[in-house]
Design a protein that fits this description.
Beta-Lactamase; 5-stranded antiparallel sheet; 5 domains; 749 residues; alpha+beta; 23 strands
Amino acid sequence: MKKEKKSEAEILRQKAKEVPNHSNPLITSVKITSPLSENEMMKLIHELEVHQIELEMQNDELQCAKADAEHAKADAEHAKADAEHAKADAEHATKKYTDLYNFSPSGYVTLSKFGEVKELNITCAKMCGIEWENSINSMFGFFVSTDTLPIFNLFLNKVFQSKSNETCEVTFSKDGDLSAYVLLTGIVTDNKELCNVTMVDITERKHAERILKEHSEILEDLVNERTRELREEVTEHKAAEQRLNTLIQAAPICIHEIDLNGQITSMNRTGLQMLEMQDVKEICGLYYMDFVSKNQKVKINQFLEQAYQGEYNTFVFSPEDSKLIFSSCFAPVLNNEGVVERIIGLTENITERMQAEVALQQSEKQLHQSQKVEAIGRLTGGIAHDFNNILGIITGYVGLAKKHSIITGDTKQTKYLDYVAVATFRAANLVSKMLAFVRKNEDTNGVPVYLQSVLKDEHDVFFTGLPSSIKINITIDDALPNVLFNITEFDQLLINLVTNARDAMDEVGIIDIRLGWSSIDSTACSSCLKHIGGKWVELSVTDSGSGIESSLLTRIFDPFHTSKEVGKGTGLGLSVTHGIMHSHGGHIVVESKLGIGTTFRLLFPPHIKEHTEVISTEEEITPLVSIKSQNILVVDDEISLTELMGEYLKYYGYKATIVSRSIKALELFKEQPDKFSLIITDQTMPELTGAKLIKQVREIRPNLPAILNSGYSDYMNAEKAAKLNIMYLQKPVELDAVVRLVNELLGET
């Protein structure tokens, strides 16, 4: 060791000698003061420098050795620490493995060939329901429930005979109750003496499987039920489709489908009938626009394009050269993405509905007009009632004055009174016409009408509004019978025919009107086409217009048929004429020549009754000198009329009690019911009407004769009075006629 150290020292010395002399500035700066020679001095210095370097190098070596020793010590300490750590890790790993083994969610057990427990974890003991500490060397089969023990024994044999894993499911019980379902997985060890078995608790799985099975059964039942329902729904859906298809086919409107190319893909029977086709195959594939008339193409194509954009639209159109009116609708059908895939079109013939709307508008106008007429009628009736009372007073006193002048022989005064009588007769006739206007619609079934009088007296009404450029010629035959008719409807007939004649002549020409007898051998009615013959009362209206084409003569009585411009006619005039004439048993014959004119002949069945002699109102009734015992109760709210009536009755020998209030008259009658032989009363009075007064007095004396006078009443007329056994006189009454009626009722001559 010393030699080694010397050699190391020598090596160090050698290295020190090799260091240049000038490397140490301290040495080179030292001044030499000794008596040594310069060479000796340099040699000594060199030795010193070598020694110094040697010392420094030794020091470095020592430092390195020290450091290595320290490192070695540290490494030793680290190794000791690592060993301790490794021991701790090993202990920790061992504990961790033990914990993992014992507290694993799966059970682990090591068994011998005979089923003895050699090792098991806590989880296994819990699954088996046994104590972990006392289970070693116990027979594992003792813990398996009886019903699954054969399965376990077979499993154990297979494990030791097989090189691969074997599995089985067993159950464990505790105190006779099932505690767990367990899945066993076993494999033999390398020494073939033992086997390791893994146990997994599958109780929850088994419970879930049981629940799943129950749910599966329920679900299966639900599926079966739903399947049955779906089958029923499919059957119902098919039936609904069939019903829908039946409805579509039976629908009174055209229903069709149009694809995106504008081609028709389907159409119901109504549509095929509109197009006069038999089979839907004839229409499928054809373009919709090919069936649109030229004057409608632009408009309908625009609606179709809007439908392709998803818009619903409805429009009304009329085909070219047709008077039919149709309402159509385009409805887009969208797919699941909201894109139009086809168009459903609905087309309905609304001609009749539009005509009905026009007729309704016309009816509303007529209703408004009738309401106006009714209002005027009520006003007229009120005026006529008051005017009748005044005329009655004038007529009565003129009659009395005339009788007095005849007795005195004053012919001049008699003549003057005749003029007054004529004037009052004309006034009474005027009032009668006013009341006839009010009562026109009362007799809807027709009353005997003398058409000559109507045509003469009211012709100004019929021709009002005609331009002066139209000349009217009227011819009326004599000795014509009455006809059963409604006066208002007769007025309507004549106005319709005159209006048509005016329009046919463009308001310039001649209208000839003739009323007379017509004898027909055999001809056909132009409106009902029935063959007719015999004698008729004929009213004909002839114009000098352009005439009617023969092809149109069969259509002129159709409702809404008109050749006039829009707004100048509804086409209802002649159809109304047809209805009125045939409702009263009449007929219409139309004769027309182009360029010459047209004649409408209205044929009325004559109403012929036995002739009844009418006693002239001018016939004098000779007053009786003897005074009659009969007392007549006269009631009228017009005092002048009651006084006049009383005066007239007294003139002919009757007693008369006059009363101006109906209530007072009733009270008077109740006081002395046997005093009066007859009652004459006005109808329209305050407090109590004449009809009600007669009813109440007849409750006391049922057979009391009664005469009811009326100028105008909504509630009483001759027919109603006759049903009540009341004699009815229309105001203004002729007093002589009253006296004759009184004589008749009381049996006087």
